[in-house]
Inverse folding.
């Protein structure tokens, strides 16, 4: 039992913290980044590359630093505190994990150096949060698969140089088998996309595939066996998202307490009112519970037992979602009017936390998944 | 005891319903259904139709267009508007400044302002809140200095809803800074927004909309005849006005309409191999809110029944604070349910959401998804404005529980 | 729309209020009543008879006063305020309703005069809250049914002179048809019972039927068609229970607020602490919501549309259960130690409210019932 | 970072587990499983077994039987006891008066009391709370008047747990009523319960049990040598003692054990045509609590890890207030789930529940149902005693959030 970071991890935390402070310490800068095409400044991305955090989760053979889930947790928590807008989660954590576990190593160096953005395209109009719910057909035609259809809410999809597309090569819409992951060059003929900001100031895209030909060599993992890779990668992304949420919640709780101490009404700081103090305490309790579960998620994501891994990740997502909702809503409430304005940071934390709750399955979804799995949470 | 509407009440409800069905512009209705902002034009067109029917200002004195309705009729009317959904008559005009002028204003003021206010020929906004005084309204700092036949106003108002459409603003300003208590020495003054020195700066809210504003007053010269009632008595008029505001504070019709809409959408939204509405967990979430809403509706009716007994111009009923707390919570929770319907499509932000004039971009995902997130974000204000729910609890603790 | 009592109803409320105050104004008296066999004092029951409240819900032809659901609400609310221990709900409201709707008028005068206690025996070991879950067989043998089996948690069963037994005369355990209600003399050979106090200081019994012969003339309603009568009677009992809960909650909220104003700690009345004031306000809000739904239940119980009636009753039970739990728990919490002692009244309200939540289906049960019914709550 | 137990910790856990399995009386265990009260005999027998093994007072100084365990080992030990379930060593002896005597007592006191306290040859109870001073402990009024070589004690204590079994009581009494602050002038005195003038009156709790008492002191004459430490310094010793009490305050093992039990019962409980445990809604309720419990367990471990860093006798960690709040809520909610299992059989009250010696009456309904209601009722005290959850929030607001 050990909750300490190693010396390397402490260094990492410090250096990422510094980097994020320099890029995001002034909240106005963030607004500037968002005005770039695809919602982030490539210069910041290049800095990430230089600082080594784009290569962090990849092995040395893959051109990376061999960081594990704890390292990802450290980076993501700092991203959460900063409310960073770059597609780190989408490209490095999520798509990166697909490449890693799909043993498609050749694109990893391009991610690690910042040369290429890779985005996972798996959501369809009716799939909601079910990873097995994939219809988009990939029909074999000689040495290529031909893709036809649409993918939605592709995180980081506007800037993507490559898409990892979850396609159906056999079976029916919700079958577990028959899902094939294909690496698709975003410049392939027949691809069109529409990028847009998301509610929380990040970016995503709708992507259409019109008779897009993809060489069979671009299969990630094995044909028809894409789901376990997808599930593993999404679990890793959820663990990262949990850490991001903790960073955001921690910052938001601090900000709210600070506000209560300085904001005066009726001649006194409103933080002198017991009801508001107790509310703040309840927020702190929710934060600490969330922090514990983010750690749990990070330390469970490498669990060899897939069911145990999935359960741990679902449990963490539920706690994070509940805490995020409570802390987000209460922070806005305690701030009063200013909490719902665009110019003030608290509302942006609230929006990001709200979207985190919705991503990769909301709390209800993961509760039901856990209840159905029948396995207890590991004691 | 009887929970049913009387025959007269039923007939009235049907009359209102028929009128809305016949007169409300389908475009306005669609914007409301889709959760989009409605623009000035929607408000004005609709209020003029209501006014033509005699329904824009039913609770005003009869000589100025009032209908002498009882609380129950007023409630039915508002509830039908909310459920339609249709815009309510602009509250700044009809529930706020209108009744104040009608009750405390001079004859000249009544003639000049009331018909135009009822018909929305004048659009009013409310100059009460200030940056330093949120829940502590009486802590306001804006001043009105008397100089001859004029008041010179200086200061800043904030959270001024739809000031960008407004022709006039009613302002609380301090005319006697030496008054003993902060509630004293405040006056209620009407200001033409075109007066030099008035500046409006929009505040963008987290949903992307620009419904509220800051309004700055820099040596704004206002004729003294624009003072309503007596100098330094403005706090009394403001209290009177805020009492008026409380009718329909729970906005039960809005929540009902949203739940109905959620059911409609959940019937067409696919969930695995079923429809979303077939999922027991989803139905239980809906039912859970419906139960509380039904309870609140009856609580609302009980408060109204008491109001009917007390007669029209009673004191503010502290029970309306109960309606505010629970009503705001339920409005907020329905917006959460709406997000549940959307799944991943809650994420995309439609840039065109913050403009009255829509671009022609197709929606991302289902066309009803775009407003779910923004409506949720925006709904957080409901438990903050008009006296935050914490302030409402203070009121109840004192006025009902006797702490 | 009218929330006023008629003049007669006002008189009723006043007279029942006075009666209950004289019997229960001193909390020690209640402890005395509980020491009687079957947990209540027959003298108090006789007073109820004399005051006419035992005959209240029955028609004049049945020897009653023709009171409706509002009258029952008035009486039950007073019973709740007083924390009365007599089997009014069990005998007059619940069993009385079965007799009334089963058109078995002949026993009603005995209830109305206080001569006989009638108790409904429908619960079995595995039935939980499902009224259709009836196994106990009644086999026709000549002109009698022969009953064999056990019934559990028979409210008022210890004192009962007659049982109304839900039996299975055809079909399988959970079939809707085939349930027959039989009026059984408690002195019949083969009946044994074991009375006991319930957690809330009321009384119930386990009853065994060993080859008990019941004349076919004692069928209530029609053979095999008992369920709708049962359902109607239970809905009426739930409406009564809701009113009782409101009486208890109202008293408990008042008591708690009073306690906060007088109890001193740290040199001040603890009611001066804002967090406790706001908690009290939340209790009040829950109370008013419950009161509204108790009214809704009372005014819906005569609804000719069975589905609408059932939905209204379920909705009321859910709100009452939620309010009762919140108010009960918070009252005890705000009282501190004294709230969990037997000698102080608050804890007894809490216990009664807890059992009310469990009776005739808890909040979860009625939520699921509503969700499954598909019908919206009447707008 | 690593959430797994180390090899040593695992070995220790297994050793504790094996010891409990081999030594705990099945009767004691069954009472705990069924939620019945355990009697004096159960406590004494078990603690003597633990003491023989050297585990009754592991956190005491080594010379008095301590084991020099770290916080993690102490936690594992307690958690295993709670999960077994087995009684914990009597906290009044082991976590309260024992450490105070060992740290502040005279050599004579140590020799006289510590071995007997560890072996439960002396049963201690705690004389702190008073009727007028609940959360405001320092407001106590009991006095100890010095007369020659004796103290004469007068006053009343309340909420004295298991005083009916106690041989001795440790009392906080006011020795200097003139002290400036209420925390000053208090002394910590040991009193033989057999001294004339000591009267114990049981208080029945709403579950029917009689675990707490009032203890009256009427001119009780106590040798002055029974004063612990210095006169008028009792408040410091009490604070020291209350810090000790906080280890395991969340009682996660108790909640874990109850959840396991609920699952077991729900597997055999019929629900319609299935088992209760097959009902999705029931599973979701369970999972919901399990998630929070898992989170709290890790929070607990994080607090322990900090404690390990700070070393053994650090200040009270205000984070333990978080553990108290959440831990008490979860203990309470598991008792609600247990009632859910029972359905209608939660109603019957088994008269024999309040006696240590059971009558031989058969249970009503399933034998495990009788304790569900009483356990729920009794559990409400958990958020009240040891500093109510409101007090814990005050502590956190001040000590962590800096209000």
């Amino acid at each position: 039992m050990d909750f300490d970071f190693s010396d390397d991890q402490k260094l990492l935390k410090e250096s990422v913290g510094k980097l994020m402070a320099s890029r995001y310490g002034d909240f106005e800068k963030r607004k500037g980044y968002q005005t770039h095409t695809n919602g982030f400044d490539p210069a910041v991305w290049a800095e990430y590359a230089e600082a080594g955090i784009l290569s962090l989760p990849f092995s040395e053979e893959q051109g990376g630093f061999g960081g594990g889930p704890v390292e990802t947790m450290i980076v993501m928590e700092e991203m959460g505190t900063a409310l960073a807008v770059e597609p780190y989660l989408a490209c490095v954590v999520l798509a990166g994990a697909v490449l890693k576990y799909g043993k498609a190593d050749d694109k990893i160096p391009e991610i690690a150096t910042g040369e290429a953005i890779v985005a996972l395209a798996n959501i369809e109009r009716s799939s909601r949060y079910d990873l097995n719910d994939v219809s988009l057909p990939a029909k074999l035609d000689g040495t290529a698969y031909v893709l036809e259809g649409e993918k939605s809410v592709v995180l980081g999809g506007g800037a993507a140089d490559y898409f990892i597309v979850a396609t159906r090569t056999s079976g029916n819409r919700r079958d577990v088998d028959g899902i094939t992951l294909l690496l698709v060059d975003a410049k392939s003929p027949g691809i069109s996309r529409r990028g847009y900001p998301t509610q929380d100031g990040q970016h995503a895209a709708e992507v259409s595939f019109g008779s897009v030909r993809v060489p069979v060599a671009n299969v990630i993992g094995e044909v028809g066996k894409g789901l376990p890779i997808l599930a593993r990668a999404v679990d890793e992304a959820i663990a990262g998202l949990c850490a991001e949420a903790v960073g955001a919640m921690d910052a938001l709780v601090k900000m709210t307490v600070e506000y209560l101490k300085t904001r005066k009404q009726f001649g006194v700081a409103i933080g002198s009112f017991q009801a508001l103090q107790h509310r703040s305490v309840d927020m702190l309790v929710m934060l600490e519970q969330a922090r514990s579960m983010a750690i749990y998620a990070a330390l469970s994501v490498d669990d060899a037992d897939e069911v145990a891994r999935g359960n741990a990740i679902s449990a963490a997502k539920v706690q994070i979602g509940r805490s995020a909702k409570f802390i987000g809503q209460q922070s806005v409430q305690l701030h009063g009017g200013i909490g719902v304005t665009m110019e003030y940071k608290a509302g942006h934390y609230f929006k990001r936390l709200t979207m985190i709750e919705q991503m990769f399955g909301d709390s209800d979804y993961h509760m039901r998944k856990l209840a159905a799995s029948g396995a207890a949470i590991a004691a | 005891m009887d929970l049913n509407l009387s025959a007269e009440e039923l007939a009235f409800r049907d009359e209102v319903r028929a009128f809305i069905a016949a007169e409300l512009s389908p475009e306005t209705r669609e914007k409301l259904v889709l959760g989009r902002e409605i623009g000035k034009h929607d408000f004005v067109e609709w209020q003029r139709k209501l006014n033509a029917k005699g329904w824009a200002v039913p609770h005003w004195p009869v000589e100025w267009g009032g209908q002498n309705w009882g609380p129950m009729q007023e409630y039915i009317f508002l509830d039908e508007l909310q459920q339609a959904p249709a815009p309510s008559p602009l509250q700044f005009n009809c529930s706020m400044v209108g009744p104040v002028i009608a009750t405390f204003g001079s004859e000249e003021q009544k003639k000049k302002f009331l018909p135009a206010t009822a018909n929305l020929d004048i659009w009013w906004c409310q100059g009460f809140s200030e940056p330093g005084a949120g829940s502590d309204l009486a802590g306001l700092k804006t001043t009105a200095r008397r100089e001859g036949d004029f008041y010179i106003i200086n200061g800043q108002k904030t959270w001024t809803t739809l000031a960008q459409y407004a022709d006039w603003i009613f302002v609380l300003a301090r005319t006697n800074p030496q008054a003993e208590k902060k509630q004293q020495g405040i006056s209620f003054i009407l200001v033409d927004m075109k007066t030099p020195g008035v500046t409006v700066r929009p505040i963008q809210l987290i949903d992307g909309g620009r419904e509220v504003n800051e309004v700055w007053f820099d040596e704004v010269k206002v004729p003294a005849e624009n003072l309503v009632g007596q100098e330094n008595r403005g706090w009394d008029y403001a209290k009177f006005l805020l009492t008026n505001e409380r009718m329909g504070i729970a906005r039960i019709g809005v929540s009902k309409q949203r739940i109905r809409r959620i059911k409609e959408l959940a019937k067409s939204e696919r969930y695995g191999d079923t429809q979303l509405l077939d999922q027991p967990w989803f139905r239980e979430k809906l039912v859970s809110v419906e139960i509380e809403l039904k309870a609140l509706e009856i609580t609302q009716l009980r408060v109204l029944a008491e109001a009917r007994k007390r007669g029209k111009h009673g004191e503010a009923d502290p029970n309306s604070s109960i309606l505010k707390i629970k009503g705001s919570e339920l409005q907020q929770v329905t917006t959460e349910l709406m997000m549940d319907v959307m799944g991943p499509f809650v994420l995309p932000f439609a840039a065109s959401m913050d403009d009255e004039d829509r671009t022609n971009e197709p929606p991302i995902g289902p066309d009803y998804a775009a407003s779910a997130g923004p409506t949720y974000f925006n709904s957080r204000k409901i438990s903050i404005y008009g006296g935050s729910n914490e302030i409402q609890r203070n009121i109840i603790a004192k006025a009902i529980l006797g702490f």
Remarks:
- The first helix of chain A runs from residue 7 to 24.
